[in-house]
Amino acid sequence: xxxxxxxxxxxxxxxxxxxxxxxxxxxxxxxxxxxxxxxxxxxxxxxxxxxxxxxxxxxxxxxxxxxxxxxxxxxxxxxxxxxxxxxxxxxxxxxxxxxxxxxxxxxxxxxxxxxxxxxxxxxxxxxxxxxxxxxxxxxxxxxxxxxxxxxxxxxxxxxxxxxxxxxxxxxxxxxxxxxxxxxxxxxxxxxxxxxxxxxxxxxxxxxxxxxxxxxxxxxxxxxxxxxxxxxxxxxxxxxxxxxxxxxxxxxxxxxxxxxxxxxxxxxxxxxxxxxxxxxxxxxxxxxxxxxxxxxxxxxxxxxxxxxxxxxxxxxxxxxxxxxxxxxxxxxxxxxxxxxxxxxxxxxxxxxxxxxxxxxxxxxxxxxxxxxxxxxxxxxxxxxxxxxxxxxxxxxxxxxxxxxxxxxxxxxxxxxxxxxxxxxxxxxxxxxxxxxxxxxxxxxxxxxxxxxxxxxxxxxxxxxxxxxxxxxxxxxxxxxxxxxxxxxxxxxxxxxxxxxxxxx
Length: 503
Description:
The structure is a single chain. The protein is an alpha+beta fold. The chain has helices spanning 24-30, 101-108, 118-129, 134-137, 142-145, 151-155, 181-189, 198-202, 228-237, 250-256, 291-298, 303-308, 315-318, 323-328, 336-342, 438-444, 451-461, 475-493; strands spanning 5-8, 11-14, 49-55, 61-67, 80-82, 213-217, 220-224, 242-244, 263-266, 276-278, 282-286, 346-351, 354-359, 364-366, 369-370, 377-384, 390-396, 407-416, 419-428, 435-436. A five-stranded mixed beta sheet has the order 2-1-5-3-4. The protein has a five-stranded antiparallel beta sheet with strand order 10-11-16-12-13. A four-stranded mixed beta sheet has the order 6-7-9-8, with no helix packed on it. Strand 1 and strand 2 (11-14) form a beta hairpin. Helix 2 (101-108) packs across helix 7 (181-189), helix 16 packs antiparallel against helix 17 and helix 17 packs antiparallel against helix 18 (475-493). The longest helix is centred in the C-terminal third of the chain and has 19 residues, at 475-493. The N and C termini lie far apart (72 Å).
């Protein structure tokens, strides 16, 4: 059994005796660090947010805010965590001797009332406070500075203050009594960290590697394999083991449905699953890279994914969630599948016997079922190049951000000399699996890129899939939203009037 130790607020603490399903939140509170709270137990409210030192390129680390209510504590073996109690001038010494600048601004601007959500807000704000790109890449919000945010930045969901603070860093944090204006004021009032700030200086050193870990208690085991080969050995013996990376789905199952997998295999730090390669013919994304890491690594190379990312849950979730996990669960309402289907993506399946590549539109075989064989994992996602010129992601949900989709539509259309040379449309929420809209695609392929063509294809799109009535939407509404998504796409990508070909 491993000697489990986690560095919290500068002090190394033992996790000996913890079970594989004891959450990071419960362990921290048991250690007397009660700032982090449980609100929803699903990663939707942010009351449990803490900071974790994550890798950030060669020789550097990045303070990353994550939900403590979802991952098991033993998954943080050998890693560094900072809670709201650890911020300030004296981390590691109990209560800080002086307030951290984020805490100071929250107090001064009236950003806290009952205080339940405040520690989570403070941790999420601190991650954005230390974000290396904040001082250089943030676009000022027009209401704050008079400078308009660009159309692309609006499409990407940015709302930045004059200090470069991206307000969507707080999209996973809910406050029920203070209201958000004073919290926004506190965020926009933050300056740059002082050069001597110890948490800023910490980012100049690499994050601690996650060591191989084995824990067994209460009839369950947690194993962090040291290599991909070791992972395959475990899967050969127990092919039904639960793979976990960010725990954004598995953690909800543990919390809400009280599932207790007998074996959990952590794959989040396996280097073979954390690759990001951009070549001449394709982009390959490792299955265990967090969506935030993918977003930074791609740096705008895939516009369709740039539209997906801000609509995929919240920043707290994207800091942990992965493409491998989102596709591997097989959910028909997972947000990434429709976008990746539109991009013509494939998944690389790996096992002890080798690898095979499967087009994503051939991957799913039924509700939460796929062609993945026992002992296989999703190693990577591949996106072929070049990309279609026109693309879009449309998500219909009850909230604009941080919500589960009723319908999701990914669209990629290539137009050459006024004619559609290729069209791919991925759909979520209208069938037992994510699907391609083959009927609408056939009407677009080879047809002139005109409104008449799009109207006909949109009508066909409304009949795709087998939508159902449930508590999120009716079948009729879902069908209507499919049609509207393509009409909206046309409005955004129609040729200029003087360039439109005659009908």
